[in-house]
Every structure is written in structure tokens, then in C-alpha cells.
Amino acid sequence: MRFMMMVKANKDTEAGVLPSEGTLTAMAKYNESLAKAGILIDGTGLQASDKGARVRFAAGKAPKVIDGPFAEAKELIAGYWIVDVRSKAEAIEWAKRVPYESGGHMDGEGEIELRQLFELDDFGDNKAVKRHKKLGQKLAKKAKGARMVYAEGKKAAKARKPAKAVGKKPGKAKKPAKAKRAKKK
Amino acid sequence: MGDARDVDRAIDAVWRIESARLIAGLARMVRDVGAAEELAQDALVTALERWRTDGVPANPGAWLMQTAKRRAIDRLRHRKLKQRKHEEIGRDLEIDQQLAVPDYDTALDDDIGDDLLRLIFTACHPLLATEGRLALTLRVMGGLTTDEIARAFLTPEPTIAQRIVRAKRALADAKVPFEVPRGAERGDRLSSVLEVIYLIFNEGYSATAGDDWMRPQLCQEALRVGRILAELTPTDPEVHGLVALMEIQASRSAARTGPGGEPILLLEQDRARWDRLLIGRGLRALARAEAIGEPTGPYVLQAAIAACHARALTADATDWPRIVALYTALGTIAPSPVVELNRAVAVSMASGPAAGLEIIDTLVGIPALKSYHLLPAVRGDFLAKLGRNKEAKAEFERAASLTRNARERALLLDRARRA
After folding, report:
1. Are the C-beta atoms of B380 and B402 separated by less than 8 Å?
2. What is the C-alpha separation between B138 and B148, in angstroms, rounded?
3. pTM of the predicted structure, to 2 decimals
């Protein structure tokens, strides 16, 4: 599951004060630890809100553009990471390790907000998903013939395996596991 | 007490984050991955008791390391006492040096990375049976419990437990050094590491909708280990190639099965459901591999093929001539009839069914493909496109008799009827 860890803005980030060298070093080290744990998917810092804009919608009216900066720094986001973890607890554990204690820019204070990303599988059984499913069925009906080689389903993945496992003899690689599974069923 | 459950969850998360580094650091001390893993488990048990009452410490990783280290010292002292008569003094010095593990945090920066690499290479040692390699890797690199591994592989727990025990014992018996091999051996050992990671990935990728959630989780585990490996050994193109291949394949997870769990073919998938974030990561990993510029290996080539599909916004926009060239290159370095079959399809997409048929006719009769239903299915399709309906019908019927998937069989019989 994926979480976005959002760093809330503060006076300094909003004033465009660049992080101190100490903060940069601590952050680089932290980013590296996320990468070396194999969980860092994406992330970046965001510039101050005076470089941004808001587009506001109201019923029956054309969208209204409001240029930054925006008040309430702590409601703004100054940067984010997207991490791919096994549980919310793991995301929290990583968030706790964000180097806020390094002083300077962050000055030991701040807030990380964790939000879980929707994955397409999460959408449950609502109308939109049902519509999508019908479409999927229609598409599946169309799917026939030669293109089967490119199938992404169970069979195809298995069939592909021997070819992809380097140096393996084709057709033999997965026999034992398959036999066991069959037995279990 | 909701708190107790929170603490347990936190401990679980800490374990997930720290276990591989912990085991790797301990393995460097005790020179035995099995013993290191047991020491780490012991430390976890102590943590469970202690943290439930005292709360999770500020630096849980260091706490676990200290606890495990103390236990390791006790063990080594104990063994030393027993062996004193037979051992020379020099050995004592050596043990003392091993015990002088540097401060955990500093160690994290340099040595732990190397230790992790040693740990992956050791867990994937070719002297172990493939199944043992998979289980041990998930155990020491992923921090998975025996039960979780068993559920993921649809295998009884005792079987997995035994595979792990056997693998650990085999490593100890063979006195496999805890190191990353150098020279020519490194290449072979790295192939084994990549193979293990990709087998884990495919095990998860082939899971169906109804399967236990642990099974698809294997894709995540494989990706995670792959990404770690890419950070630890950034100059191996095949590592980035494998990561690229897995990222791009994973990007299609949501699109590749229909609502009833039926497979949706690559060219029929709703590309809006492909995960752009993972595609971007995959393309970047492939670019890293290609930038290293060594002779292109099989994973880089497969990733490049996957990338051709990922880059095409619609199925019609697929760069088939390039895919043909990549399959040709793949067939040269890793010849296999299945690769040839895929090349035939690519050729038919690029140059028409007659050209595809020409290749496929060279595959008929190859023993490895004798019961492979996709061979007659593809051949039937080419024949049908060429208007040779009678031959096509026979091929579809043959394909239907070979597949074990009922849904696929119905599809093929339908085509046979219409041919």
C-alpha cells in the first residue's frame, strides 16, 4: 500500500528561505534511507505558495483563479514523499524518522500528514466500478486469438516464466510448485 | 486496551524496517546467516515483552541490535569456553574483533549496505534448492514470517519451515562465507539473485483475484528487494533491467484482469488503468541500465520490450519493428522457443501474418512446446488471418485441448467454430 507523507509548510518555507546545509544533509540522508529500504516511490519539495495559484469552482460560474501566496502556512504543503509500505504502522514509523530535530530550517517543529493512496482495486462495488466492470467484460470478449501470447493473466505469466528465467530449460521450471498446488485443491 | 495493539503494530513495523539490516549486521559478527536470523528473532521476542510495558524506544533499530549483540556475545563466549582447549589464542582475538561492531548509526551509513548485499547474495546462493532460496530470501530480506511465506506460496507452513531450516543448515554445512563474491563468480551469483527476485515477483503476478492477499504481496516484496539491490549495486545494468521490468509489469496490475478474474490481454487492456508512476519509475530504471552501456543482458532486453508497450498510448501505436529487434536480440543471448514464439507474434504485427507463420512453422515439433497451447493458438490465428480457415480450425481445437484454463478453452473452441 502506498502512502503520501506530506510535509506541512511553515514561515520559512513560505518566505522562500532555502534550507540550511545541515537540513539538506539530514534530508539527503533520510531520503537515502528510504531509497535503500526499497520503499521510496516518489517525492519532492514544493516551492512557496506565492509561486502557485488556486483555481476555485462555484456552481454555475466560470472557475476563478486566485494567485498565491496563501495565508495559513500550516495548512499548506511544502513537500511530499510517496512510500510503498506494508502497513500504515510502517508508514508512521518512517514518518517518525523525518529529521525534524536537525534545527535550522525546520527548527524541530512541524507536522507530517500521512494519507493513503487509492489503488484501483480499492474502489469497491459502486456504480462507477460496475460500469467499469461491464466495459472490462466487453473488452475481454474482444480479446482473442494470437494476441494471447501477450496475455497478462495467470496462464500467460506462468507460460512466460521459463523464457524469462535466464538459463532455465523451457517448460520445466515451475513443475514442482504447480503439482503441489494442484494437489492442494 | 487499544494501546497494546498499537504497540504490537508499531513493533511489527519496526521489525519490517529493521530486520534485514539487523540480520545482516549480526551475520557479519557470527558469520552464519542462520544463527544471525535466530539471534534477531530472539531480540524481537525480547522487544515484544519489553516494549509492551515500556513503550517503543526512541531508536528501536539500535535497541534491537544491542539486545541481539549481547546475546551473540554470550553465545560466542559460551562456545569459546567449550572450545578453549582446542583453540589457539589467535582465535580469541578474532572473535573480539568481530564483536567490536561499530555504533549502529554510523554502521548504517556504510557497512550495513555492504552487509545487506552480502545477505542477499548468501540467501540466494546457488548451492541451495530454488525453493529454499525463495523462502530464505523472503524471510531474511522481507522480514516475512513462515506463515506469511506459506500463505503466499499456497504451501503448508511446516513445508516452508523445513525449507528454511534446510537452507540455513546447507549454508552452515558448506561454510559459505558471508561475502559478495568477486570476479567471474560474482556474475553467476548475481544471476541467481536476480532469478530469485524475479521468481518471487512472478509467483505474486500469477495470483488470481480470489487468492489470499499475501500472494499478490509477493510482487511488492520482490520489487522492494529489487529496489534495494539497485541502490546497493548501482553499476550492474541487469539489476536495473530487472527492476525496470518489474516496475512496468506491476504498472499493469489493475488492468490485466477483468471483473471475474479473467485475464485481459495486453493489447486489450485499458491503458488508463496503467499506473503512470510505476511506468515512469520503470522507464527511468531502464534508462539507468542503458546508460551503463555494457552488453545488454536478458533482463534489460525484456524491460526494453515492456517499455515499448508502456510508451505506446494506444495498442495501435506500439513500435512493433523495435519489439521484433529486441526479441531477436533476446533470442540470440537467451535462446528459447517461447521467445521465438513471442518474436513470431511481434513479426506478424510488424510485417503481417505470413511472416509470422514462417517463424512459427519452425517451432512446430519442438519437444518443449509440444503441450504448450499458445503455439497452436497463435498458429491458428495467423492461418485464420490468411484465410486458411480449415487449418485454423484444427489448430484452435488442438489449442483448446491443451489448455487447462476453462475460460480459455471456451474462447478457443468459439474461435474454432467461427473459423
Report:
1. no
2. 9
3. 0.82
DSSP code per residue over B185-250:
HHHHHHHHHHHHHHHHHHHHHT--TTS-THHHHHHHHHHHHHHHHHHHSTT-HHHHHHHHHHHHHH
Helix, strand or coil, per DSSP, at residue B263: strand
Set of chain A residues whose Cβ sits within 8 Å of the Cβ of B223: 38, 84
CA distance B393 to B383: 9
Same domain, A10 and A86: yes
Nearest residue in A to B245, CA atom? A164
List beta partners, residue B265. Answer: A151
Q: Are residues A113 and A23 in the same domain?
A: yes
- Chain A residues close to B405, C-beta within 8 Å: 154-155
Q: Is the minimum CB–CB distance between B80 and chain A shorter than 8 Å?
A: no
Please, what's the b/e burial string for B241-254 (b: 16 or more CB within 10 A of its CB; e: otherwise)?
bbbbbbbbbbbbbb
Domain hosting B146: range is 110-209
Domain end: B53, B73, B107, which one? B107
Which cell goes with B328? Answer: 531477436
Q: State the number of CA atoms in the 13 A half-sphere of A96 facing the CB.
A: 15
In chain B (419 residues long), the average pLDDT of successive 10-residue segments reads 76 92 92 94 93 89 92 83 59 53 48 87 95 96 92 92 96 93 91 96 79 83 96 94 97 85 84 94 96 90 97 94 96 93 95 95 89 92 95 95 81 89
Task: For residue A39, give the chain B residue with the closest CA.
Answer: B224
Rounded to 5 degrees, what angle do the CA atoms B108, B112, B117 make? 150
DSSP state of B103: P
Q: Looking at the partner chain, which of A33, A121, A147 has a beta carbon nearest the beta carbon of B267?
A: A147
Check if A30 contacts B (Cβ < 8 Å). Answer: no
- The answer to whether the beta carbons of residues A79 and A43 sit under 8 Å apart is yes
In a domain, B299, yes or no: no
Asked whether residue A136 falls in the same domain as residue A154, the answer is yes
B284 in contact with A, Cβ within 8 Å: no
For A1-40, letters b (16+ CB in 10 Å) and e give bbbbbbbbbbebbbeeeebeeebeebbeebeebbebbbbb
Helix, strand or coil, per DSSP, at residue B257: strand
Say yes or no for a CB contact (<8 Å) between B224 and A38.
yes
How many Å lie between the alpha carbon of B172 and the closest alpha carbon of chain A? 26
CB B7 within 8 A of CB B47: no
Q: Are A101 and B24 a contacting pair, CB within 8 Å? A: no
CA distance A58 to B120: 56
What φ, ψ does residue B129 adopt, rounded to 5°? -65, 150
Distances, alpha carbon B380 to alpha carbons B45, B363, B399, B416, in Å: 60, 14, 9, 9
The x, y and z cell numbers of residue A162, run together, are 521459463
The band of A182, judged by pLDDT with boundaries at 50, 70 and 90, is very low
CB contact under 8 A, B227 and A35: yes
CA nearest to B245, candidates A178, A55, A163, A118: A163
| Cis bond before residue B259 (omega within 30° of 0) | no
Q: Complex ipTM, two decimals?
A: 0.81
Q: Which amino acid is at A146?
A: A
Residue B191 lies in a domain: yes
